Amino acid sequence: MNKYSETFGIDISKDVFDVYGSTQGHLQFKNTESGFKNFQKLLSKDSLIVMEATGYYHYRFAQYLYHQGFVVSVVNPLSIKRFIQMKLAKVKTDKGDVKSILYL
Fold it and tell me: Where is the Transposase IS110-like N-terminal domain (predicted)?
């Protein structure tokens, strides 16, 4: 049994971050503090957030979520790339990446 009520995979870039929730599906938010707060409204204290390491962009968001008391896991992008290749996916998109991050 999973101890988390929902798991979210996140791929973050300069302007937006794509989210795939285990029950919410695909969502997209602006990469701003207001976007962080809008995403936070979806979370419960027993949510797990998994995101790809993307330099400054992931760090700011991961710190924000951590300081709000959420469980955050940052994953090496090479691990995600190899996982996607292992599944023989031919096209790499942000929307597809977030779903892969969730099931990594």
Answer: 9-101
